[in-house]
Each structure stands twice: as C-alpha cells, then as structure tokens.
Amino acid sequence: MLFTKNSSTPPDATKDGEDTMARNGGFSESGMRSWRFDNRVLRLHPNCGVLAKDGGSERANSSSNQNPSARFSLLGVPGSVKKIGGMTRRVRQKGSQSNEKSKDIIESNSEISARECYTSDSNCNVDWTTLPDDTMIQLFSSLNYRDRASLSSTCQTYRLLGSSACLWDSLDLRCHKFNTSVAEALSSRCKNLQKLQFRGVESANAIISLQARGLRGISGDFCQDMSDATLSMLAARHDLLENLQLGLDACQRISSDAIEAIAFCCKKLQRLHLSGVKKISGYAINTLAQHCPQLVEVEFVDCENVDVVALGNLSSVRYLSVAGARNLKWDSASQVWSKLPNLLGLDVSRTEIDSAAAGRLFSLSQNLKVMLALNCPIFEAEVSNISAYNRKDRLLFALFSDIIEGLTLLSSDKIENKRELFSYWGKLKNKDKRLREIICWIERVLSHSLWHIAENSPRTFDDFWLKQGVSLLLCLLQSLQEDVQERAITTIATFLVDDDEIATVNCGRAEAVLQDGGILLLLDLARSCREGLQSEAAKAIANLSMDPRVAKAVAENGGINVLVKLVMSMNKFVAEEAAGGLWNLSVVEEHKSTITEAGGVKALVDLIFRWPSDGDGSLCQEHAAGALANLSGNYKCSLAVAEAGGVHTLLMLAHSSKAEGVQEQAARALANLASHGDSNTDDSSSVGQDAGALVALVQLTSSQHEGVRQEAAGALWNLSFDEKNREAIAAAGGVEALVALIQSCSNFSQGLQERAAGALWGLSVSEANSIAIGQEGGIAPLIALAHSDIEAVHETATGALWNLSFNPGNAIRIVEDGGVSVLVHLCSSSTSKMARYMAALALAYVFDGRMDEIVLVGSSSERNSKTLNLDGLRRLAFKHIEEFLHTFTDTQTFSTVVTSLSLTTLAHVAEATHIQEARHLKCSGAEIGRYITMLRNSYSILKACAAFALFQVSLSLSLSLCHKDKFNFLTMPGGRHAMHHTSLLQNGGVARVLRVTAAAANSTLETKVYAKLVLRNLELCHSDASISSI
C-alpha cells in the first residue's frame, strides 16, 4: 500500500508553525535547533580571506567551526510525503561577536551599492576617463578594497590614482587573510598608513612587513595566541603609536614584559587597552607612567592580578577601566586612585568593589565625574539607592539605577528623545570637547559591559534588559563610533539567545527590541556602507526573526529585500549572516513567496558556489541550503528552486560536501523538493534521475551525525513514492542501508526513527523490496518501533509492517518476532485512528490463510522449528479486528441502511465511518484482489474487514460526485487516486462479489452495510462518468 500526501490542500498552503513552536519550547531546522553550541569555540576563523595584490581581485575564504543543523518539524499527516523542516530555525552562536566581520574604514558606499552603480543604466554613457582626478579619488574612496582593486586594474591612470596616499590612511583587515606575502604586496601603498585593524596572530606577525612606520593606531582581535615577542616587535617598529587595543578576548600569553616594551618604545601612547592579561606588575605600570606622559586612557579588562598602588602613579590618566579584574585590594585602590589628579571616568564593573570603597572614591576624588559599577554583586547587595552617591557633576551608574536618565544629567541641554542622546551629543556643532570625550568613553565601556553581561549571563538580568538594557543598546546603535555600534549589535544578537543547545530565543527581549523601534535601526545599519555593520546587523536580524511577531515586522519593513541584497555580497561574512536571516524568515509560509519574488532563491543558489565547502565556505553553504530547504517546502517556491538550478546544486552538496551541516540541509532540501510528488514531478524526477544523488543519500544514512542520517532517510522516504526511484534506491543498496539504520536507531530521536521506518514503508511497496527487507532482518526493528509510545513513530512503523505482511514469508516473520501482540495492542489502544486501521489490516493479511500454506509446506525449515500457536494468535487477532470495526458501528443506523438506500442515511454513515487519512492511500490491483478474496473467506470477520477496507478506498473515487444541491454524496474530499481506484474497482469484478456479499444471510451487519456503501459509490461514479461523456 502506497501512502501519499493530500493533494486537495494547495501545495503551498501547509502550515504547522504554532504546533511546532509549542513542541520545541518556543521555536524549533530547517530549523533555527537545537543547534549545539560551544561557547568557547568561535564559528569564524581569524584568517578569513585573501586580499588581492596589485590590481587584482580578492577572494574571501574562511575556516569555521561547524555548527550542527537545526531541528525541524514535519508537515503533512504521518506516513505521507513529508515537507521536512517547516519550522527550521537557526540562531547565531553566542560568543561569535569576537568574529567581527570585515568593515570598510571609508564611510561610503558598500560593495553592493558600488556594484549597482556600475550596472545602472543611467551611467552607461559616462566617459569615466574624462573625469578629474579629484572626482576619481572621491569615487575610489566610496569603494571597498575589492572594488577599489578592480577599478585600479583597468588602466595605468587609475592604478596611480588608486594608490593615492589619502586612500590608504586606514586598513581594516579583520575579514581578510592577511599574512606576510600580502603585507609585502601592500607595503608600497602603506607609507602613510595611520590606522590598522587586524585579527589573529598570523596577521599580527605580518604587520611589520607593511613597513608602515607612521602607524598611530593598532586594534587587534583574536590575540589570545599573541606572544610578548610579537607585541614587543610591534611596539618597537611603530614608535609613533598613540592607540593600542588588544581584545576583547583574553591575551593569555602577554605578560608585563611586553607592557614594559610598549612603554619604552611608544612614548606618544595615549590609549592602551589590554584584555585578559594574567598579571600586570607594578614595575610595568610605573614604566608606563614614566615613559608615556600623554597616556590618558588605560583599560586593563578581565585581568587576574593588577598592582592597584602602581595605577595610582598614572597621573596623566583621565579614564581608567579595571572591569572584570580580580584580586583587587579595594581598600588600597580607593585610597590611591582617589588621588589621581586628572581622573574623570572610572569603570569598576564586574568587580568585587563594595559600597565603602565606592564612597571613598567619590568623596575623595577631586575631578571624578563618572563611575560605572555594573554587575558588581557586593556593591549591589549593600546599596539600594544610588542617589546617595550622586552629586552635581558626579554620577555613579549601576544596573539598578536609571542609566539613561543619569546620562542626561551630564549635559545642561534638554534632550527630548532620551533614546537618541548619544547621536544627539555626537552631532552637536558647538559642544564641550571634554564632555564629548567623556561621552565617547562611556559609550565604549558601557557597550563592553553590556556585551559581557549578555555573553556570560544569558538567562539572568531579565528585568534589567526589559526595563532599560534594550533601550541602552538601541541608544548605542545610534553612536557615531563604529566599534560601539558593532558591539551593540552583537550584544543584541547575543542576549536574545536563551539556550544554545535547543536554539530558543527570549521572546520578551525580542519583542522589547521590536517595541522600541530596534528593527528599523537594525535594518538601517544593515543598509550601511560598512560591511562590519552589515554582517552584525544581519546576524541580529536573523536571531530576532525567530520570534514570529518580529519576523513579521522585519518582512513588513523591507527586511527581506535587504537580506537578499546582502546575500549577494562578495564579503563572505555578510553573505553568510544574511543567508542565515533568510533561513529563519523562510520558516513563515507567507515569507517564502516574498523571498522568492525578491530574487532570494537565485541569490542563495549562487552563494553555494561562491565559496566552496572544501575551503572555508561550509557555513555559507549550510545557511543557503537551510533556507532553500525551507523554501522547497512550498510548491511554488520549489518550482523557483528547480528553475534556478537548485536541484542539481543541492545534489552536488549532498554528494560532495564533507561538512555535516551542509549534508544535513542539502538532504532536507532534497526531501522537501521530492515531497511535492505528483504536484511537481519535475522536482521529484530530477532528484531521482541522478543515480549519483541516490547513492549519495544512501551513503549519508550511515553518517556519524544523527541529523544527516535523519535528513537522508527523509529524502529517501519522499523519493520512494516514485516507482522508478524505488528501484534505483534498492539498486544503490538502499534496502540494506535503511535496515541497518533502523536496527541501530532505537535510542535515537523520534525524527530519525520515523524517517527510517517511513523510508522502508515506501520501499516495501515493491514486492522485491518487501521480500528483501524481510530477509535483511528489517521486521524485528520495525516491530520494536511499532511498540513506541510516540504516535508518529508507531504509526509509520505500522504502515511498513502492513505493507510487509502482504508477503506470506514476511507474515511468518511478524508472527515469529512477536509482532502479533504489538499489532493487537495498536489495533485497540493507539491514539491514531490510522494506526489502528493499518494494524487491523496487517493482522488480517497475516491470518487470511496464505501464511498457513507456507507453514505447512516448509515444516522442516529453521523458521518452523519454533512452536507457533497459530490458532490462538488468530483468535486473538480476529477478536481485536472485530472490536476495531465495532468502534465505527451504530447498530440502529446500520440497520436502516440494510433496509433502505436513503442517500441522506448513506451519507451520514459514510461521514461517521470514514478515516480521513486513508484517502491518501493508493491501492494496487493485487491489494484489491486480496480484498475480493477475503470477501469469500469463511471467516466473517475477514469479510467485514475487507468490506471496510474497500469502503475506505471507494471514498476517494471522485470529487465530482459531491453534488451539494442534491446532497447525494458519499465520497469525501481529497481523492487524488480516484481514476486509478475507479479503474480497479470497476474492472475487477468487485461489484458482483459485493452484491453477493451484501445479500448473503451469513454476512454480518457491518459487512452488508459497507458492501452497500461501496456499491452505491460505484453507481454514482458510473453515473457521473456517463454525464461527463454526454
């Protein structure tokens, strides 16, 4: 028996969102999952691309940690073709903020806008060679490095202009693979380089080869492996340094020796930020005080041991941060630091400062204006009212204080919209320089503290986030400092995640961002020219979109178009995050068509080829394949996927990718494409026609990753509904592989169990496959799954056993392996009407007499060496089949049917006794023949069971029989196999046998009623066909 999906429902109208979200604690793979995250493993490798040499282009590559795929839900009735992963979601890993993507230092057009400029029709007639040099330089400044290099390669004039010093005063190399060879190639252009941002120790070692002796600022991420020698060399080669920042991650290998080298070499140093240094000695700090007289800002963040007394010698320092520092002696610190003559701002967040030390610092400091004490447990336990510390021109900020209100007190200006205070101060023309300096410092340390709280305490501080944390982050989004904006966006993406393991977001926080206008701000930043902001904003939008209301707001405000454009970016990280956003948004059925209409399908297919998975593009491919998998669940979108070459692209991924996440999403997408069956035969046949694809899917069923095995089995299940595919899957070793899978999946997830059983169910339609499944040992594990308490699992396994029981040899195996008792239990106790129906039919097949012939003939075989009490088992089976049929019997109504053919009565009985899911069944001629044979059986219960089965088949004959004006319908909506069943029932002599059965005196009441119902349906079908021919 072949079980297919319901075609009466429009293929693109299937929804299961609310149910799936409820099952998964708020959100479910495709979907965004129970993704397993390791907070200590960053998803993006520091070396992420290759910057082009002279005149060349650049190619972005990355090495990333693999993210397992998201969990999904199923669309459709159990046992039918599955659209897998309707609720697939992905959530960005916490901790990934350290992987800030590439960003252009030039605040101008992004690569996307530049590409649009090149292709604009309005510019086709411009003679670019006639433009003045100043204009061309301005144009160069509007391009990212990639487009700048491409334009420089067009002619010698542009090469010279592209090398202008003003275009090379800053470099952001964080998203590029920057090594010594690249540095040497760029060195001729970097003589006037002022500012440099890099990522990773390899890049740090290569900086010297740039020969940029005039560098004023160096900022580095991923510096945990940087040694004293590397840092000392950087300081020695760049003695004009004014700003040195290494963090946010811990600089574990840096010691006081390197700090001393910095002090000796960089005498013009003004700002020093180091994170995670284990010990900073008094000698190192005193060396800084002695040799760096212009040092105004020091941040020793998350350091284990800092000499607090020596910090008191930094007389020039105006801003000091020891946030997260441990083992500080606060009695000494408060006494010494209060004597710093120029100290204006102090950040002691996440330390063990107490109220007494805080009081001394405020009362004794001459010039201290601002102190931040965020997330200081001891202080917060001792102090409930912050007003005791605040005086005119002096403010202390804690988590329990109104931080935004306090910030407004720093200026005498009246700010109407307090949430725009940072952007307001940044835009003031006549502003106090010192006030602006204080505000900029507050923005930096505040953004860092909020990020740290979100990163390390995801499930706490909920009141803080809802009352003022969200508002603070949205204020920081409007800062004029790019690094502050990026960190605020990253914090939003991080603090939304409730649980990395099951990929759920905090809906309260997500909706707070929505209510405060955060979606519009994030979309504006995603449209920014700076790729760093683009990628971070796309990441935040992706996580926010896991909340249905937020996802709707993103779509309504043009977010889908924004993300589709970002998917087309040549920056790998931007495209990767944008694809993740489309993955999450495509969970919602209404968004799928919008994504397709915006060109999202083609953009996602193109993305898969842009960065191959054997390089550093596995996450790009996984996100793109995940989005395509969700889109493929919609019929119309699946056509767009096929038209864009998505079928062959996904086949390529399934066949050649070594990344588990990519394999899983590709297999899921193929399963969804194949799920449309007769509605979209091109998709199903395209997947099945590629022998290599079927071989790849069969091989994936033995993957070490459970998610890959699950999706591969789901794809094979859907593909097995096509007869040619069944043969090809079997030829590729699919029977053996799926039996091996089902034998080992007893302790695995419900989804894997259901799909493995479903794939065997689909293959068992073929007699040869059915026999092979029995011989390979597939019956015993199916019986075990049929005993499952999970409805979807035992229903699918029962369907497979029903098909297998058609073969007498398999029927014996079912008896020998204890399957009768399991089927009896299902027949009477399952919560699924369909499972009870299939269990009853399986029992009828086992005991209709065909198995008895084999038992008698082969008494000497090994299998018959077992003592089988067939008579006892037969009586038990018949008893429960009868009880099952009685659940549909209304004696009074049935008696009326026997004596009358009132269409109203017949329709009432048909409505009450039909099994809705059974209309998806496609019976073969052999099955119809077996039912006819059972009608002649001496056992009355088998006759009744056969009549009931034929009645369920007849209900699917034709929608055209529903004449509402005459109310003479006995068929139910949704018979997609009407023509097939009509031919079998009319040509198989069924009517004659049914008349005899209905008239027989020894026929039970149920048998007579169901026989009459089938006859009436056949008559209506014949009458309808006659009318149609006229």
Automatic annotation (TrEMBL):
This is F-box domain-containing protein. It comes from the Eukaryota. Residues 1-11, 59-70 have a biased composition (Polar residues). InterPro entries: ARM-like, ARM-type_fold, Armadillo, F-box-like_dom_sf, F-box_dom, Leu-rich_rpt_Cys-con_subtyp, LRR_dom_sf. Residues 125-171 form the F-box domain. PANTHER family: F-BOX DOMAIN-CONTAINING PROTEIN, PROTEIN ARABIDILLO 1. Residues 1-27, 53-72 are annotated as: Disordered. It comes from Ziziphus jujuba var. spinosa. Pfam families: Arm (PF00514), F-box-like (PF12937). Keywords: Repeat. ARM repeats lie at residues 558-600, 645-676, 692-734, 733-778, 777-819.
